[in-house]
Fold this sequence. Notes:
With 758 residues, this protein is of the alpha/beta class. The protein contains 24 helices and 28 strands. Helices cover 47% and strands 21% of the residues.
Amino acid sequence: MIKISxxxxxxxxxxxxxxxxxxxxxxxxxxxxxxxxYEEGYIDAKRTLEILxxxxxxxxxxxxxxxxxxxxxxxxxxxxxxxxxxxIDDLSxxxxxxxxxxxxxxxxxxxxxxxxxxxxxxxxFGGVNFPNEGLLKQYPNVTGHVDFPDYCRTSHMIERIMxxxxxxxxxxxxxxxxxxxxxxxxxxxxxxxxxxxxLSNHVKRHAANKEELNILPTGEKYENETINKTRIxxxxxxxxxxxxxxxxxxxxxxxxxxxxxxxxxxNVAALFSNPSFATINEGFGVQDNLLGGYFAPLETQLKDMAxxxxxxxxxxxxxxxxxxxxxxYVLNWHMLEKYEIPTxxxxxxxxxxxxxxxxxxxxxxxxxxxxLGIIVLAIIILLSISYLRERKRKREALHNLQYExxxxxxxxxxxxxxxxxxxxxxxxxxxxxxxxxxxxNDRIALAELLTxxxxxxxxxxxxxxxxxxxxxQYKGQYRCSFSGEYQWWEIRYNTINTAGHAPLITCLLQxxxxxxxxxxxxxxxxxxxxxxxxxxxxxxxMSHEIRTPLNAIVGFSNMLTSDPDLSxxxxxxxxxxxxxxxxxxxxxVNDVLELSRIESGSLSFHIKEESVRDMLESFYQTYHFxxxxxxxxxxxxxxxxITLHVDAMRLQQVITNFLNNANKFTxxxxxxxxxxxxxxxxxxxxxVEDTGKGIPxxxxxxxxxxxxxRDEFAQGVxxxxxxxxxxxxxxxxxxxxxxxxxxxxxxxxxxxxQLTDN
Length: 758
């Protein structure tokens, strides 16, 4: 019989297991619903999501975020609340652990829709400027941060940057507009002149007659106007007011202040010709062309929201239901450049954002480029000095070998020689030669003489011997084993004709093995000298290929720093050119280093057994996305699998180079990657085929030469195929190429194989 204590223990364990499973704190990840006030795809949506995800990860939270978009500008209040209620039903069914709300409209609708489900889940809001305190008291589960607009400080910021100005803002009769106007008057009363009359009467005063009316659109009436004190002017949100604002905005003392972000104010800010400021963060740094303002930037708001989300998920409640952001004086660097406002005139407490990398670090880029150029130049100088020393040494060695060769020839000619005399089919030899070959008598038959001659030279000797009587003089060189080993000997025949006697054919036999040895040394010396010439050619090509991007880098860097009148488009273009040439220079250095490692034998290989089909399938999947229509990327793999002993990474380097070349020079048709095997040869053939421009037959033997380029204007330095050949040869293989100009090319790697047992 089961005891009551055992039952109690079992129930307790079951309870804790269930609590562990359902507790969000121990879930794999939290479910967070993110509700935006604006439409899907609005200008800040993507950036907002990315920043929030980064901040949540920084807080150690793994979250699954589902987005909702209220599209507040499309709906009136009642349908907007209904839409929000549907959002709440959906996120509740999804099982959201927390709801994050952005901006005033979504926050207000979330509480105003009166959906009871929203009270069951923590809510964190952010980016709110005017919170509804009455509704917040009804929702103790709703907490967040607000960014109360500070119109007075923003106006003083405008005055410090622009001088005394006419600050224009759009303001209607909506609830939000009234709240904005009340707050502005409360903050700025007695500090800044405020007008609610609009600009219409002010404009009409300058257009009393038709002649002046024709002049007004040029804005000249305001360009020379002197403003002694900053003034805030309220513009009603109608077409006449907006037209007046666009006209007045051409003056040099007028600015636009963005106090809310709706369709009208957003378009006015974009079209306003003079600088625009804002009291809210919406639109700053994107398409609204805002110069700056006193508010909490989007990055700050989302960082605080992520911290609040972390606290609420852990069951912690903030000390205050509503907290305020730390505001900052922020400016947009791009707008400062647009309106030609020098950064040196900006107060130190103001933060300049969105400074481009190339602008922030342009001195580093410039000095780095110069330093790189100096290093490369030093390398070239050192290589040139080394080459000149090596060339001098080779020239001296070659001169010494030539001198030794001449001396040796004179010594041989002046030394002892063996004398023969031909009689019919026999050779009469002197005693010294007979001693050399240990022959019993002085007569040697032709058949016996052939046994001393190397088999590879016998046919040539017999053909020449048959023609001796037809030529007065003859000289031939053959490999003979007169002294026990095959050495080079020279046989000279001379026919002497005397009256009344038969022709006398004499012969001088001389060992020229030392001469041959010296000739081989001379050949090697000549090869070394030719190699030195190749090194000179290599250095010349290297110098040319390095100077070209280096000149571009240094030239455009100097232009960036020395010409202040360059436009943003020109600066961006110059930066792109600098980056492209930097990448080209680094590619050249890397290719040269890799080619050097291949030739020196220091390039490491990791040979192991690999499946050809698996390797090529991986290569195909990796490169598939680099082939763009209309090109078709085809794979041609046979049924049988093949095993190779290769370095898969090096083989991929070779195949990728073939594919890059094919992709570069093929505009239509296809690229094909495939293989086949020939068991009788015990080799596998891996090929890349294209329908590109092809290679002329006269240039096929040149494609693997260093610095060879089919198209001189194409990017690259022409070392890729040389590197490929070196890699394949290190894996006991070879590269074959076939091509027809105008129809395409095929590059094939031939490697030894082993068939697997299927």
